[in-house]
Amino acid sequence: MRDNITAILAHFGTTGTVIAKERGAFLIQTPHGQFQLVANCDQLDSIVRAHAFKESLAQAGFPHTDRYLTTIDGLPYAQFGADYYTLAHRPQGRPIEAAHATAEEITAATRTLASFHLAAATLTLDAPVAPTPPDTFRRGAEILAAAQKQIRKQKQRTDFEILLLTHAPQFIERIHQSIDLWQAARFTTWDNLPCHNRVKATHFLYAPQSTALTHFNAVGNNSHLHDLARLLQQFPAYHAVILESYNTVRPLPHGAFEALQALRHYPAPVIKIAEQYTTKKRGRMPAALEEKLRLCVK
Fold it and tell me: What CA–CA distance (Å, rounded) separates 126 from 192?
């Protein structure tokens, strides 16, 4: 790809030099600032939607994102050969590493998330309405039950199948507990607002004055509690710090604390793994997916 960078940048009407390669992207210094050039595997409509959303966010007062530079044709992507490329502004700051994050970094990330939610709440996103948590929880139980049924039909079982079959009952019980926690919370302000939907520690670029939030290609409608719950799952030891920091920027409504407990308790990673097992035709699950399941079990 390095040999093609000059030609790809020409589509964006700019030039640049490669500074480094990080997380699957080339960091490039251009006359417009630092940008990340990525061979994008997302659907084009996802790229276009993310671009329009980030531009609307900037107009709503939240410009701290990896906004795209558009091509000379006004598109947020360039086609080169059979591939599509995005050139995203790389805000100042360093990615937060979950395993080594400081309280200062986590506080900054939480306030950035809350500020993003404030701006996003003023916008409308043309995307499907997300299911409510009880519906999601029940669907998760159905997926696990289907996985159990599928595994029991196998005359020979892989280590992955044995592991999933052995521990599925405890995860189904966790789902039922999540439903009970949600009902006990009596949270009545579940709203469908534009959400990031892929909150991850490394998607925050920490800078003391202005921490940015990046990677918006999964943006969709959901409750903002969904994003906050994902942040809490990233940093379980900083539960109190995160809730206090979020509350200072965007106060949480009645019942939100209890509702977050239900969302955090739901074994979403396990459900995702089980769904991949039931929907994809494979002779053997990838070793990386089996390792993820082992970590969930632990």
Answer: 11
Q: What is the pTM of this model?
A: 0.89
pLDDT tens string for the chain (298 positions)? 667 899 999 999 999 988 888 777 899 999 988 999 998 877 888 899 999 999 999 999 999 999 999 999 999 999 988 889 999 999 999 999 999 999 999 999 999 999 999 999 999 998 898 999 999 999 999 999 999 999 999 888 999 999 999 999 999 999 999 999 999 998 887 888 999 999 999 999 999 889 999 999 999 999 999 999 999 999 999 999 999 999 999 999 989 999 999 999 999 999 999 999 998 766 667 788 889 999 999 8
- Measured distance CA(25)–CA(33) in Å, rounded: 16
Q: How far apart are CA 77 and CA 72, in angstroms?
A: 10
